[in-house]
Structure formats: structure tokens, C-alpha cells
Amino acid sequence: MRWLLPWFRPHAGRLVVYEALLFGATTLSLSSSWLVARALDVDVAGGDRAGLARTAALYAAAVVGAGVLTWTARVGIERVAQDVMRGVKERLFAHLLDHDLAFHDQHPPGRLMSRVQGDTEALRTLLSEVILQAGPDALLFLGLLGVLAYEAPLMAGLVAATLPIYAVLLYGFRRVSPARFLLAREIAARLSGFVSEHLRALPLLRAYGRTDWMLARAEALSEEKFEADYRAGIAMVWFFNTLFAVRSLAYAAILWAGAVAVAKGALTLGVLLMALDYLRKMFEPFLRLQFHIVTLEKARAGERRIREMLAQAPTIRAPADPAPWPAAGRLAEGLRIEDVHLAYTPGVPVLRGISLFVPAGKHVALVGATGSGKSTLVQLLFRFRDPDAGRVTVDGMDVRALDPAVLRAHVGLVQQAVHVLPGTVAENLGVDAPRAAALLADVGLSGRLAPDTLVGEGGAALSRGEAQLLCFARAVATDPEVLVLDEATAAMDPATEARIQALLAARPGRTRVTVAHRLRTVADADLLYVIDHGAVLEAGTHAELLARGGRYATLWRAQLAAEGAAA
Predict the structure, then answer these.
(1) SS3 for 489?
(2) Do 286 and 345 fall within a single domain?
(3) Same domain, yes or no: 147 and 293
(4) Paired strand residues for 513
(5) In 3-state terms, what secondary structure has residue 402?
(6) Which among 372, 371, 376 has a CA at the least distance from the CA of 342?
């Protein structure tokens, strides 16, 4: 838990106060039982009504005081635990946002959210209910045992005799439970991630009749979770029932031995009642620990997963002394991809020594079959990934020498997949209302959307065309030096696509990279690269590639034939 100390340091003063209040409450709790013994053995035995009234008043004050101090401390400790966990969540969430795409490929969103929410919540309960309560509980236990040893050694001996039994039971449970609780937690995270991810794809699942498959898979995971929860729960049931049985037997034995001692005059009635009350209070820390043993194991598993996740440092980071973007914010030479190799999975290359050049201020198109590596090249241009070998340069400078935030500030991206965030249109564009209104007019949405229009969760209030145009407006909002279009017009009608092309042409001198399947949309590009199996197969202008009669010419004729047949 040492890694949590930075989050606790700002609250150190408050924690000292709250712990002091808990210690005070423990002291008052000890004194209340002693006051009961005094009332019986001194005030009642001596017939002192005034003394009995004073003892009763002190007892009431001790009980109320202990309650007030405990309530104040517990509320304060809970606030500290909430503040600490808020800091951990913010750090964890920022860590996830900062991580590269390779990390997110390995960790589904549902599982990551389970870490951010579920694991931190278990850790919060551990802090507020177990760790921060441990000191006062230890004082209560030692104080009660000490008073009993002084006032009634026989009672103290009987209580002490039960402690090894508790220790053995606790040790056995700790040997069995962690693996079971960890497995249950892992399966719960898998189920949560599966449901979260597939609910978002529900329209697609319905369209292809895959809802039955989803239900069957969810049922299988639920069965697996049930079995894991049952195995963890049955261990807990045996543990708790055995503990309560031992506690009841110990209580009965002490009551019997104490009653015999009172009958013989070796023990007063007040001390016996005090011993029984102390016995009840003494096992409160044990019972709290028993009830929170599940929380403890869940928190231990969650804490380990959080530490492991935070220990996975992002591979794509800004250099210690980042180079500046080219002077005046304009490219002089352009972008180069030089002998780049990349594999998502070891031994399965996606890019195989590919090299290409995007001249500054020109329009370059990447065409080729699906899976040829075009979108992977886009990820390299934005440094969403780094190549296994080779490099990507801007005006001859390796992009790894730039701050990724600076690189992405100068390069705009529009993808075929539409990503619209909840909120208003202006918030999605990241600009103020007047600028948002101008951008909406540029893309032909001014009559349908306003800067303060709410787009809904995932753009639910927009048509797909409106959402696609909004993504275009967002990409050009900062007037980037380089604009990358990854199949961005594939789903557009000809009129809308023509409007977008006119908008792009209105910014002369901008470097553009277009990934396309429809060759007609990029026939006017200054340079086309035909990508095949992660390598450049052909390069040239539209006219040059047609004259060459290679792969591009074949694709062009096939698409013209398909369009003619469709017409």
C-alpha cells in the first residue's frame, strides 16, 4: 500500500485528528463497562443512591461520547478514503487515456472500467473499514485484555484460550479464499466487459440475428461466475459459522465459570458483568475483520491489478527535450515513411519495409485492398503506434523527436467510423459558438444544427450523415497543416461528397493524405500509392498508373464496370 502514500499526505493532519477521536471513543467504551461494575459493586452494594445516580450519569456520558466521537471519526475517515480514491481514479483514468493503442488492443473497455470503478471501490472499503480502523481496534483489544487480567485473571485466561482457535481458523481461510475470490473477480470483470461491449453493438447483433449467440455467451459467462462465486461463498459460510460457534461456546464457558466464581465469592457480580461486556466488545474487532475478510481479499486482488496497470508505462511518450514543429507551422519538405516494418502480433507482419513520400502541400492517396495496411500507415502518421523498424519523418525529423500532442495538433483526422461525444455541437467541435456556427455553415449543417444542439449519447440525436459532417468540421476546426482522411467519404452521397471536396480545396497549400477504396474520389490526387500486403506495389498519378496497366488500372476498370452495372 506504500504507493498510496502520495494521495494520503495532503490528508495527514485530518487523519491524525480522526484516529485520535477513535482512540478517545475506545477509551470511553472501556470506561463504560467499568462504570457498570462500579455501579453494582460499590453504589448498589453500599446503598448509595446519589453515587449510583452519578455513576449512571457518567455511564450515559461515556456511551453518548463514544457514539459521537465514533460517528465523527468514521464520517471523516470515509471522506478521506473517498478523496484518496478520487485521486487514484483520476490517476488511473489519465493513465488509460495516455496509453498507446497496443495497450487498449489487449484490454477491452469494459474490463478497464471495471478496474477504474470496481477495484477502486473495493480498495476504498478496505481503507475506511479495515486499515484506518486497525489502530483503535488493537487498542480496544489490548485494553480489554489488560483490564480483564487485572480485575479477573480467570476470565482473561478463558478469553486468551480461544484466541489460538480464531488464529487457526483465520489462517486456514486465508489459505483457501484468496485464489477463489480473485478468480470470481476476474470472471466478473470479463462478464461486465462482455455485456458492456456487446450492448453497444446491439443493432448490429439484431441485424445479423446474433442476439441468441450473445445471450448464450452471456449465460455461459454467468454460469462460470456463479460457480466461482459459489466456491468463494461456501468457504465464507463455513468460516463464519465456525467462528460464531467458537464465540458462543467461549461465551457460555466464561459465563458458567464466572457464575461459579461469584457463587463462591471469588468474583463480584459487577466484575462478571464487566467481563461479559468486555468479552462482547473484545470480539468486535475480530467480527469486523471476519465480515470484511471478503472485502480484504477483493481489495487485495483489486490493488494488485491497479498496481500492475499503473506499472505498464505507455510506450509512446514525449521526449525529454522535444523538437519544435517546423517553423511558421508550415511543412517545407513533407512526410516520409522510411523502410517501416510493423506487426501487431509477433511473426505476423502488417507492414513489410514500406517506404513512401507525401510532399508538402500536395494531395496523396493510399489505395488498395482491405487489410493491405493503409489504416496502419495512418496510425503511424499520428504516432498512435511506433514502427518495429524504420521511421516516420516530418521535414526529415523523426516524429519520435516531437511531442505527440504537438504532432496531433498540426494533423487533422477524419475516419470512416464516426465518433461523436455526448454534449453540444460546439463542445464536440472544441470551439466557441461563433466559430462553431461558421464551421456548420462550411459543411452545410447550419440549417439543421446549432452550436448549442445536444447530439446525444454517441450522436444518437444525429443522422449518420450529420455525424460524419460534424467529424469533418471538427477536423478542420483548428486549420491543421496536414489533413488525413481515412475512408472518410465512403458513406456519403455524391452531393455531400462534392461539398466536402470543395471545402478541402478552399484551403490551398494544405498537405492531404486520403485513404480510399473508391478510386473515383482520389483520381485528382497529385500522387497515388497502391498498397498491397504492407508494401508499395505502384506509385504515380492517375494517368500514369492507368497507362502502366498494372493493379491500379485493373481496380479502376473493375470499379467503372461495377458502377455501370449498378446504373
Answers:
(1) coil
(2) no
(3) yes
(4) 364, 484
(5) strand
(6) 376
Q: What is the DSSP letter of 315?
A: S
How much is the pLDDT for 567? Answer: 42
- What is the domain range of residue 554? 327-410+480-566
Q: pTM for this structure?
A: 0.62
Using alpha carbons, select from 386, 381, 390, 399 the residue that is nearest to residue 344. 386
- List pLDDT tens digits, range 87-145: 788 888 877 777 776 676 666 666 677 667 667 777 777 777 667 777 777 777 788 77
| Widest distance between CA atoms in the chain | 121
291 plus 335 within the same structural domain: no
Q: For position 67, which CATH number holds?
A: 1.20.1560.10
Whether 289 shows a pLDDT value over 70: the answer reads: no
Calpha distance 72→524 (Å, rounded): 73
Asked whether residue 233 is assigned to any structural domain, the reply reads yes
| 196, 299, 414, 434 from 446: Cα distances, Å | 35, 52, 20, 12
Tell me if 284 sits within 8 A of 140, measured CB to CB. Answer: yes
Neighbours of 543 (CB within 10 A): 9
In-domain check, residue 14:
yes
Task: State the burial class of residue 373 (Cβ atoms within 10 Å of its Cβ: 0-12, 13-18, 19+).
Answer: buried
CA atoms within 13 A on the CB side of 305: 24
Q: Which 3-state string (H, E, C) describes 115-172? A: HHHHHHHHHHHHHHHHHHHHHHHHHHHHHHHHHHHHHCHHHHHHHHHHHHHHHHHHHH
Query: Exposed, middle or buried by CB within 10 Å (0-12, 13-18, 19+), for 313?
Result: exposed
Q: Looking at the structure, do residues 249 and 352 belong to the same domain, yes or no?
A: no
- Give the chain's domain count: 2
Query: How large is the average pLDDT for residues 351-362?
Result: 91
Q: Say whether both 297 and 381 belong to one domain.
A: no
Residue ending a domain, among 263, 284, 311, is 311
- 3-state SS, residue 474: helix
Are 300 and 386 within one domain?
Answer: no
| Amino acid identity for residue 349 in this structure | P
Same-domain pairing of 285 and 376: no
